[in-house]
Amino acid sequence: ISSAPSGKLPDLELKGLAGHVLLAAGMNQFSNVLYCGRGDDGDLSTLVAAAHITSMILNARTVVLRNDIISAENEEKERPIHSTQSKSKKSKISSAHKVSPMTITSDHTNMKDQGFHRGRVLVLVPFRSGGLRFVNAILQCIKGKVEGRNRLEEELGIDDPVDRLEIQEKMQSKPADHRQFFEGNTDDCFRMGLRLGKRGCKLFTKLEVSDIIVASPLGIRMMVGDPGTGSYNADALSSIECLVVDQLEGILAQNIEHLEVALQSLNQIPKRPPKTDFQRIRDWELDGHASKFRQSVFLSSVISPDVLSLFRKACTSNAGCLRIVPSGAGIQARVDCALTRSKQVFWRIPCDVLLSEPDDRFNFFNSNVFSRINNSDQAHTMLFVQSYLDFVRLRNHFKREKASFVALSEYSKPEDVSRGRARFFQGRRQVLIITERFFFFRRPVIKGVQHVIFYSLPEHSHFYDEICSWATSSSSTVLSLFTNFDKYKLQPILGHKRCNSVVKSDKDSFSF
Predict the structure, then answer these.
(1) Which residues on neighbouring strands pair with residue 452, listed in sequence order?
(2) CA 418, CA 111: separation in Å to the nearest integer?
(3) Would you put residue 142 in left (φ > 0), alpha (ψ -120 to 50) or beta?
(4) What is the pTM of this model?
(5) How far apart are CA 293 and CA 238, in angstroms?
(6) Cβ neighbours of 150 (radius 10 Å)
(7) How far is CA 1 from CA 32, 176, 327, in A?
(8) How many beta carbons lie within 10 A of that of residue 445, not counting itself?
(9) Which pLDDT tens digit goes with each residue over 293-336?
(10) How far is CA 43 from CA 95, 132, 143, 278, 299, in A?
């Protein structure tokens, strides 16, 4: 835990309680939370977040209804003549909600209970399948009738049983985490609204009158438009009190600009006057300070500088921030899980300035590694690149040097992927270059790999041992390049103790 608004949460950690308990405790204090332990318990962390926002919406709705009764009582007192119908209606409302006479007051300052629009919660997920999982978690937390449930599977799921069976058969050979992420509807452009009430929940309501908005970053950007243009309109997001970003690792594999636009569109003063009572709008929203009272909850299975940067940008409130990460105790390092006979060698790249890190990495690779893999003696080498920009730079360099290679990225066509893998397996190409996003979305098993080089370490640590397991021959080698700025990537791969010793060591080469 990096920081906390009170002294209770560190006590919870000392008692050894599970990470999702810390997650629930942090959200209940309305702190900004970055939870990086989302893995096998992904559905559980989603359920904890769904329970929190459901409770928040219902409690806020109760306050609004009580203040509606107070407002009706005050209006009745100001009228000189009361009709029988109004008296009977007033008595029914008061008896239904059991409002205490002590709560009735004519002071409007005690009735600041609303925003510009009804929407209080925004949930961002990468695909429709993630939205379906989150909505189902919300429905588990409420009682009563659910309107539009039949439409839920049609819109967010795979309605055709034939298509569903084909996807299940296709995913049988994939790892469990890949199946959980891509087994459903992978459409990345959608948005829907939910409205909670005393008698149940209504799905697929208009966003302007919804309590909860579940959408993908691309869906939000298509709704608000591009900032700075005349069509830009983010009025529906003006009163968001809680932001939940689920499956952040999947959103980072998409176009991160969509998420940045969605974050910039929150809590802006509407361009059009809303249909609400301005006397009941909270003062900080009228003053344009609503973002300072918004809670942000990020659920991710990875931790990286990009994740931390997005979390800092989203956390504009004054309630404090919590960062919940696995402690590392009892977790086996990835170097010990890799099924390879060869030693795993790590080379440190001399780099003291973060801005020069891409150039230092490329120069080190060109002077120390490229001549080895360009030699015909070291064929069947797979080069893993985390960044697409580095991938383009290496691809152009290999072309200039007229090296024998195949380059596969997330933008490669299926026929190009099949052709390139066949040429590499048959030995017609010596080097195969792939990106992390290519491996994330397709999760192939590359055959014919004898040597593995990590030009940059993967953000998903379990990719490391999965790729190393491809090089199983006795002559196989595994080489990883890193800088001191890659500590977040090194920790799950080497383990916390090994990582600290490697970073502090004066040596530049390590083997495990």
Answers:
(1) 382, 478
(2) 64
(3) beta
(4) 0.86
(5) 12
(6) 9
(7) 12, 29, 10
(8) 12
(9) 999 999 998 888 889 989 998 888 888 888 888 765 445 567 66
(10) 40, 12, 20, 40, 11
